[in-house]
Design a protein that fits this description.
Catalyzes the Claisen rearrangement of chorismate to prephenate and the decarboxylation/dehydration of prephenate to phenylpyruvate. It comes from Leucothrix arctica. Among the domains are: 1-60, no CATH class; 190-264, Periplasmic binding protein-like II (D-Maltodextrin-Binding Protein, domain 2), CATH 3.40.190.10; 291-371, Alpha-Beta Plaits (2-Layer Sandwich), CATH 3.30.70. It is built from 13 helices and 15 strands. It has helices spanning 8-11, 16-54, 65-78, 85-103, 117-126, 138-147, 166-173, 208-213, 215-221, 233-241, 252-257, 305-315, 348-360, and strands at residues 107-111, 131-135, 152-159, 163-164, 178-186, 190-193, 203-206, 226-229, 246-250, 261-264, 274-281, 291-299, 320-328, 334-342, 363-371. The structure holds prephenic acid (PRE). The site of prephenic acid has 12 residues, from helix 2, helix 3 and helix 4.
């Protein structure tokens, strides 16, 4: 069959079956090429793994998030469609994840239980090739990584509707772990129950953040149904799976996990409901070319203290994208500030600003420099 075998003119007069047959032949030939190229790529990854192992250096890293970010960014830039950037990124994420698994199996601890948005974030960032284990508390995720039982951890840090996750911020104060990456996940909330519809349902379970994200929709559609906050959306789904008079709000994963029917999809009040997650680990990540740096700074509670912290950033033209303050109860310092700044800690202007900040603050700790989320 020629390459042009199924062009409109070549297809004229053919039956639908014949036309489809021609295109399917082409798809089969393309799949054969993709398979062969995937095998070549996987063999390269095996070679990379051998070189890394052979280098004999302690702490050599198989997982290289900055390199992964560069690959995905480059391919996203080259993509001309018709597949959306998001799909191309997801496909190549899986390819890289499977290649990494040939080099080394890595384990990721996350805020569970199974079926939460954090689990979805783990696989959005690491693909399906990693091992993942759920833990009930944010502090448990930190502990697993600190103890070396898990290589990395994933925890939520902020939601565009619900705001900051203070447990995560506070835990950095007592931890020496680094931030190795960030994940942005669009959050779609769904109403789900055991039956095909909501008749007979008298209560709706969900995490309080999710209830908040759907507050207006719930007030419009189910003003008289009792809303019950529980520890996680997955727990809500579990409860709804055991009681036909209950429903739950959560992600598709939670519905799948507990075999519930989604009776109303995408019920969150804001179309741009996004949660940001952090990847935590033990190492510092080299620059990828488009990075963010997170700082933990403590200062005495005196007039103008915050202004003094911001001055060095302005002097060195650094963009601060986020700042959060938290009280520091057991110290004489007064406040901790968590800042996100565009750039990498190895950049010259960042180094100058950090040196000046150290002169102003009681404590300046770089929590990590890491590639910005790709999509
Ligand atoms: O370039 C490397 O260091 C690799 O290990 C290869 C590879 C890849 O498949 O492209 C795999 C895992 C790393 O996290 C980054 C990239």
């Amino acid at each position: 069959m020629s390459d042009q075998g199924d062009t409109p003119s070549a297809n004229a007069g053919k039956t639908v079956i014949e036309k489809l047959g021609g295109i399917r032949d082409r798809i089969d030939a393309i799949d054969n090429k993709i398979l062969s190229l995937l095998s070549d790529r996987a063999a390269c990854a095996e070679e990379v793994g051998e070189i890394k192992r052979g280098a004999g250096e302690e702490n050599i890293k198989f997982y290289r998030p900055e390199r992964e970010a560069q690959i995905l960014r480059r391919l996203k830039g080259l993509n001309k469609g018709p597949l959306a950037d998001e799909r191309i990124t997801a496909i190549f994420r899986e390819v890289i994840s499977s290649c990494l698994a040939l080099e080394q199996q890595i384990n990721v601890a996350y805020l569970g239980p199974k079926g939460t948005f954090t689990e979805t974030a783990v696989h959005k960032h690491f693909g399906q090739g990693v091992g993942s284990s759920p833990f009930n508390q944010i502090t448990d995720v930190f502990r697993e990584v600190e103890a070396g039982t898990a290589d990395y951890g994933v925890v939520p840090i902020e939601n565009s509707t619900g705001g900051i996750v203070s447990h995560t911020l506070d835990r950095f104060v007592s931890s020496s772990l680094k931030i190795c990456g960030e994940i942005h996940l669009m959050i779609h909330q769904n109403l789900m129950c055991k039956n095909q519809d909501m008749s007979g349902v008298t209560r709706i379970y969900s995490h309080e953040q999710s209830l908040m994200q759907c507050r207006d929709w719930l007030a419009r559609h189910y003003p008289d149904v009792v809303k019950v906050p529980v520890a996680s959306n997955a727990e809500a789904a579990r409860l709804a799976s055991e009681d036909p008079h209950s429903a739950a709000i959560g992600g598709e994963n939670a519905a799948k996990q507990y075999a519930l029917n989604i009776v109303s999809p995408h019920i969150q009040d804001s179309a741009n409901n996004m949660t940001r997650f952090l990847v935590i680990g033990k190492e510092e990540i080299p620059a990828s070319g488009n990075d963010r740096t997170s700082l933990l700074i403590s200062t005495k509670n005196r007039a103008g203290a915050l202004y003094k912290l911001l001055e060095p950033l302005e002097r060195h033209h650094l963009d601060m994208t986020n700042i959060e303050s938290r009280p520091a109860p057991d110290t004489h310092w007064g406040y901790f500030f968590f800042m996100d700044i565009d750039g990498h800690v190895s950049d010259a202007d960042m180094q100058l600003a950090l040196a000046e900040l150290e002169g102003e603050a009681e404590l300046v700790r770089v929590l990590g420099s890491y590639a910005k989320a790709i999509l």
